[in-house]
Structures are given as C-alpha cells and as structure tokens.
Amino acid sequence: MTPLNPPPSPDTSYDGYREWKQWNRLFDPQAHERDLFQREFRDIPVRGKRLLDIGFGSGALLGWASSEGAEIAGIELQSELRDAATARGITTYESLDATPDSSFDVVTAFDVLEHIPREHLLPFLKQLRRIAAADARIVLRVPNCQCAAGLLNQFGDATHVTMLSGPIVQQLCLQAGLATLHIRESMEAIHPGSRLKTLLRPLQRLAQHLSKLSFRLMWSSGSTPLSSNVTVIAAPHPLPALSDVKGQH
Q: What is the DSSP code (8-state) at residue 113?
C-alpha cells in the first residue's frame, strides 16, 4: 500500500508500482485477505464505524471493511487508484491535509510508514491524531526490523526508505500524542496453495515456532514480536488537544 502526505523522496518512484504489486483485483479482497483482516481486527470493531485507510493500494482492506458494515474512506498517492475508488462511490482524499479533524473512528495505515522518510514520520503521526475521533483506534502495520523475517519484507521493495519496529513506532506515537495500546505480531496471510504445500503447512509452523523460541532464548525477551510484520494499535492520548498540525511536512 502506498503512502500519502508527505510524498515519496525524490529518488523514489511509484511508476509501474501497481503492476509490480500485481494489484489486479481492486476493492475485491480474496478469501485469504478476508481471513487475515478478520483476525487482525479481532478486537477492533468496524461495523458502523467511520474507517479511513491510508495508502489503500488495491483496496482490499476497504473492500473487507465495507462488507463488515464500516463507512469507508481512503487516501492514496496514485491517481488511477483514487479514480477507481471514486468510481465505486468511495470517498477519497489526496492528502491528509484535506481530511477533516476528529472525523474517523478507525484509522489504518498498513505497510505505509516504511515508505515515509524518517524526518516526516512524526508530522505524519500528528496528522493521524488530528483526524482521529476521541475514542478512535489507529492501526499501524510495518515490516518488523527486529527480526530476519521482517528484513525480508523491508528490503523486498525499493520504495521502503525507513526501517521500523514496534518499539520505534511506539516511541514516535508517544511524541505525537498517541498512546500505544498493543504491540503484537501481525497476522500472516494463509495463501491457498498446492496439496503438497497444504500438507507441509503444519511442519512450516513448527519450524517457525522453534526458530522464534531459539532466537528468544539467545537474544530477546519473550515479548518481542518475531513475525515478518508488526502491528501497533494506538489511540489519541488523553492530553489537551495538539495545536493544528495541518500543512506540516
């Protein structure tokens, strides 16, 4: 999913990005994507909520949320994807600056922050606090650069410019006036595969479990997420309102 506001750094291009990502189905999540979102949002209700997805890309998350009864809107850098959303009656914004204050109950940014230069992340998160309702949930997913599996994601895309982890995002959220509620391993998509892959899946899970156990015994505490992505769930901190952050870049 591609980010919005601030724009990518000058040496980053999204030309041909949709084709490279093979986003052929727009706003029509596949079964494994629906399953992933159902598990990722297991404790975050979306029915009847105003949900904004930042960098909506293929629109899979928006399509799922709409089917679950959410009132959806999105922000996207690529005009052809915004046009496709508008044609389906989805409210779109070209930037966070255009988004109304305190207007969303759920704000999502899946695979977005790693596209944003480090110096722009704090203004970006302050914008999320501005547009979030008082009791909103902000759901952020980034490659987990605290483990090898996350580095595969981080260095698998030329438009990724910032390395992140759960603790780094938590620290930035605190500075932006957001309270971190959870840092947890992101759900992994269970892709349909051949019969052989299906049979081998339990063995794969066992190998992953043993690998994580070994890493924790040697290098980390039991609370460190070791999945390829990490999910941070935040909420507006109960502090006096921040000064207007519109227009910050």
A: G
Residues 149 and 211 sit within 8 Å (Cβ to Cβ) = no
Where in the chain are the domains? 17-194+225-236
Structure tokens at 35: 């399953």
Fold of the CATH domain 17-194+225-236: Rossmann fold (3.40.50)
What 3-state DSSP class applies to 56? coil
Check the CA dihedral 171-151-233-202 and report its sign. Answer: negative
Q: CA end-to-end span of the chain, whole Å?
A: 20
Coil/strand/helix, residue 73: strand
Q: Which of 41, 161, 15 is nearest to 60 (CA)?
A: 41
pLDDT digits (tens, 9 = 90+) for 143-195: 999 988 899 999 999 999 999 999 999 999 999 999 999 999 998 877 666 66
One-letter amino acid identity for 50? R
Q: How far is CA 134 from CA 15, 53, 57, 96, 123, in A?
A: 37, 18, 27, 18, 19
β pairing state of 229-236 and 132-143: antiparallel
Q: What is the pLDDT of residues 15-53, one digit of tens each?
A: 899 999 999 999 999 999 999 999 999 999 999 999 999
Instruction: Burial-class residue 71 by CB neighbours within 10 Å (0-12, 13-18, 19+).
Output: middle
Give this prediction's pTM: 0.84
Alpha-carbon span 215 to 69, nearest angstrom: 41
